[in-house]
Design goal:
By secondary structure, this protein is of the alpha/beta class. The chain folds into two domains: about 40-265, Type I PLP-dependent aspartate aminotransferase-like (Major domain) (Aspartate Aminotransferase, domain 2, 3-Layer(aba) Sandwich); about 265-395, Alpha-Beta Complex (Aspartate Aminotransferase, domain 1), CATH 3.90.1150. Helix content is about 35%, strand content about 15%. α4 (about 85-95) packs across α8 (about 235-245). The structure holds pyridoxal-5'-phosphate.
Length: about 400
Amino acid sequence: MPKPPLSTTLIHHPYRPPDGFVAPQPGVFKASTVIFPNVAALHARDWKQRSGYTYGLHGTPTTFLLEERIATLEGGLQTLLLPSGLAAITLVDAALLAAGDEVLIPDNAYGPCRELARQELQRWGIGHRLYDPSDPGALAAMIGPATRLLWLEAPGSITMEFPDLPALVRAARAHGVTTVLDNTWGAGVAFDPFDLDSGGEGGLGVDISAHALTKFPSGGGDVLMGAVTTRDEALHLRLKATHMRMGFGVGANDVEAVLHALPSLALRYAAQDAAGRTLARWWAEQPQAGAVLHPALPGSPGHDHWARLCTQAAGLFSVLFDERHPPAQVHAFCDALRLFKIGYSWAGPVSLAVPYDLGVIRPGSGRRGTLVRFSMGLEDVHDLQADCEQALAAAFGRG
Ligand SMILES: *Cc1c(COP(=O)(O)O)cnc(C)c1O
């Protein structure tokens, strides 16, 4: 008997492994093409519900699994995955805004969120204004007939002011404006974005949570991914339609990496929180530090708002070196750090430090100086403190 042609046999091999394989981590499914049993099934598939599969871009068992777990993490009902946190921000703007509309963005928001509005949204005829998140009354007064969307962030990415989130959401609700929170800092751990009023009436929450899974859910500093989570089916379907038409997809290897890291998310968040507070308190005693910005430290902007909503905080804080210290000296301090590496992002294993010119990132604040934003990795906190001590001595001299 001649063997059948090898290529065909290897592609259409009849063996199927037995069902019932169970292991700590789920299996990973990879596909662009999804195979249908017949034409009727091809015609009957509904991409809007997770009832079946149409094409790899629109969902696999692996992406559905991560979507469900992120929805649970955030306290939402539906989640969409995107190739980065910034793509998650882009999806929300692109799905919900049209020419003539306006979006309001906090003046301390994640920089690329503002830049997207200044460039792309502007070209598409969508207006934006920056608001002061510490003043809900002023925000309410800014909302006009063209205002469709309100971005929120808690706390501000670099300057770390924690806003009165419930008050800002109430102001938007009173005017029928959709709210979207960049929940990367809280990560679904520090507070529940869809229930900002726990213990109260209930029902007060943001409409949408956008989350850079790049940070805590990945935890490795090696994956880029974003998520958009909702609790309202109609709003989810609007976002999902745009998500599909714009071709946002995620790679199965990256989804696998996030699924692998999720079980330790709460433990890593708590560990980095503890290290962040220890080091922030130490910095508050250093004479070179003009201010230490960490929402869990009394005296930090918005501390009371943080304390009403949260018991936990991300392992992230900024130290302000005021104008007594020229930027070059602060940069020399950063260069002298050994364990802290210079680089963007946070929530990975390696501690990071980035200097920012306060006059550039918050021109309206009236304050000047150089901020260093520290993010805790997973190193021993005593080693991290010793690293800051030696770099301070190197750049500022002793005492
Ligand atoms: C990192 C980050 C983003 C963007 O995430 P990427 O995956 O890097 O695009 C958005 N918002 C906040 C607050 C972030 O820290």
